[in-house]
Amino acid sequence: GSLFIGHESAEVFGDYAAGLNHTLPTSGSARFTGGLSVRMFLKTVTTLRSVSGSKGAIASATAAGHLGDAEGLAAHAYAARLRLNSKEAPHA
Q1: Spatial CB neighbours of 51, under 8 Å, sequence gap ≥ 6
Q2: Mean pLDDT throughout 43-47?
Q3: How confident is the model at residue 1 (pLDDT cuts 50, 70, 90)?
Q4: What angle, rounded to 10 degrees, do the helices at 55-70 and 74-82 form?
Q5: 13 within 8 A of 5, measured Cβ to Cβ
Q6: Are 84 and 58 in contact (CB under 8 A)?
Q7: What is the DSSP string of 49-71?
Q8: What would you report as the CA-atom Rg of the chain, rounded to the nearest whole angstrom?
Q9: Which candidate, 63, 90, 60, places its Cα nearest to that of 78?
Q10: Do residues 57 and 84 make contact, with C-beta atoms less than 8 angstroms apart?
Q11: How many whole angstroms separate alpha carbon 68 and alpha carbon 83?
């Protein structure tokens, strides 16, 4: 649902003009989601931008290399280490 706070916050504004929606979830889904919203019809896309040579990129590549080794995923470890040294992929 939606909260309409204050005397001037008429429900009709939420219904027709302000973009709110007080349609409630059904079948127990109220345990993990709120009312219907335009966000329910949007796709979430996650992104990553890494800057070569930055502290974060070096730490991520080092950690990913170790995790790739530990999981037996040699290509993952190799790909991570390529980001540390573009000429070769050293094996730690």
Answers
A1: 57
A2: 91
A3: low
A4: 160
A5: no
A6: yes
A7: ---TTSHHHHHHHHHHHHHHHHT
A8: 24
A9: 90
A10: no
A11: 14
DSSP 8-state class, residue 24: P
Q: Note the pLDDT tens digit of each residue in 47-92.
A: 999 888 899 999 999 999 999 999 999 999 999 999 887 544 445 4
pLDDT at residue number 88: 46
With beta carbons less than 8 A apart as the criterion, state whether 77 and 65 touch. Answer: yes
Query: Nearest 5°: CA angle at 44, between 39 and 47?
Result: 145
- Cα separation, 81 vs 92, in Å, equals 9
Q: What pLDDT score was predicted for residue 17?
A: 85
The model carries a pTM of: 0.52
